[in-house]
Every structure is written in C-alpha cells, then in structure tokens.
Design brief:
Number of strands: 10
Order of helices and strands: EHEHEHEHEHEHEEEHHEH
Strand order of the largest sheet: 1-2-3-4-5-6-7-10
Oligomer: single chain
Radius of gyration: 18 Å
Largest sheet: 8 strands, parallel, barrel
CATH superfamily: Divalent-metal-dependent TIM barrel enzymes
Distance between the termini: 13 Å
C-alpha cells in the first residue's frame, strides 16, 4: 500500500507557517488524494494527547478510510510499551523506531535486550517494529539485531537516503536489508556540491529526479507483492517563504504519488 507521512507535511504542520495543519487536517488531505495509509512519524504532540483526543484521531481515520502507522525514536522498553498502547488505541499495525533517541544511545547488546523484552508483546498484539536505516547506526548492526532477535514482528524500515551521510552506499543497503524490510520510506535525494565548491549538500528531490535507484529498490524489496507499505516522505529545503515552501511540498507529494502509482500499473 502507498502511504503518506507527517514528513510529507513537514513544513505544512511546522511553526514556520501561519496556520499549521492539524493531525486531522493531514488525515483529511491524505484521504482527499486517494491515499489509504498515513504514518504519524516523529510527531511530538501525539505523546501528550488524551485518550479522548486519540479516539478522535482514530475515529476520523476510520471515517476517512485511512489506516494508521506510527513512528518514534528509541528502544527503551517503557517507551516502546507506550507506543504499543498508542498503536492499540489508534488501530496501528506498525511502529517505526530507531536505536537512538534524544536521551538514550544503547549499545547493540543493550538494544537486543530491550527488543527481546518487548517484541513478544508486540507480536501478541499483532504489531510490528521496523528499525529505520539511518546514518547514526551502521546498517549491518540493524540487520544483525533483527537476525539475533529472530521474530517476524521485528524488521527494517528501509530509507536509503539516510545512509549517505554515513558514507554507506544506498544500493548496498537496499541489498543488505531487502529480506528484512517491513516498511519503506520513499524519498529521492540529491548529493551535490555546495555553492562555491566548498563542501556538499544532501537534500531531497522529486522522485525520479535524484540519485535514488528506485528501480533497484523496487526489484530488491518487491514491496507490492510482499504487502509492504511504502510511505512518501520529503527532504524539502526551505524555499524562502512559507507560501512557496508549502506549495512546493504539495507539488512534490502529488508528483511522488503519481510516480508510485505508475509503477504499479
């Protein structure tokens, strides 16, 4: 299934715009674009919502015909248990996470212990944890963790763009993680020299115009045939003002959805 993420609305719900989109506003826009999946990812207000507010989000998603997934950072058992509660409240079947959070940087052995404690609870609830590929942790460490824990409810959230910052090759990461992928963050990227030829910039790009080998990703992961959800994100730089930035963000979303749909026809 093709989905959208809070990262596809990064600027539209930020405090950089005069009238930020609410979570229900993002859900409504998702449904209006004919998309049936929305990933609430790294969205701080979620953790402070009351049960009544969470129920309102769940009920609105149901009314709109939009399934939910969640995204957070960190592996401490108490934190993952909180997100399992949120997943249950919101009918979400997947929680994307990362090894590190603002207040926790576990060793691989500590991360394994955390996951061994909590993954059985996720499995019992029918919820999957997907560890995202990103620059702070080598991809081999993530794959080894998944292998050692050895539960179908633990896998990888593949995002090849992130690993460029750690000088990992996106193509290698796609191949390494493909058997374990449970979720894909789809965004193209451009790694280019900065103006003046001093240094480099790693930024987003409209899908098909950057350096993501999307064809390789499609062949290796086989998301459509394996039932893996692919969630659209953006790394859109600020475009000088709020109106222009939000307009470009919306255009990228429409383009990327069309691109992904064309792959499946």
């Amino acid at each position: 299934m093709i989905g959208l993420s809070t990262y596809a609305y990064f600027w539209q719900w930020s405090d950089q715009v005069p009238e930020p989109l609410s979570l229900t506003g993002m859900l409504a826009d998702t449904a209006a674009q004919g998309v049936e999946l929305f990933q609430i990812c790294d969205y701080p207000p979620l953790e402070s919502m009351t049960d009544a507010e969470l129920d309102e989000v769940r009920d609105e998603a149901r009314r709109l015909g939009v399934r939910l997934e969640l995204g957070t950072r960190g592996l401490r058992p108490e934190h993952l248990r909180r997100y399992l509660e949120l997943a249950g409240r919101l009918d979400a079947s997947l929680v994307r996470s990362m090894l590190y959070s603002a207040d926790s940087r576990p060793t691989p052995d500590e991360a394994e212990a955390y996951l061994r404690e909590v993954v059985p609870e996720y499995a019992a609830a029918g919820v999957t944890i997907a560890l995202e590929t990103y620059e702070q942790v080598p991809t081999r460490v993530l794959v080894d963790l998944v292998d050692r824990v050895g539960d179908e409810h633990l896998g990888i959230c593949l995002d090849p763009a992130n690993v460029v910052a750690a000088l990992e090759l996106p193509g290698d990461v796609i191949e390494l993680t493909a058997p374990h992928v449970k979720n894909v963050h789809v965004k193209d990227f451009a790694f280019t020299r900065s103006a003046g030829w001093v240094g480099f910039a790693l930024t987003g790009a409209r899908l098909g115009t950057g350096q993501l080998d999307r064809a390789h990703e499609v062949r290796a992961v086989r998301a459509a045939e394996r039932g893996i959800n692919e969630v659209v994100e953006h790394w859109l730089p600020w475009q000088g003002d709020a109106a222009t930035t939000c307009a470009v963000e919306r255009e990228w979303t429409a383009h990327n959805l069309d691109y992904l749909r064309s792959e499946r026809t």
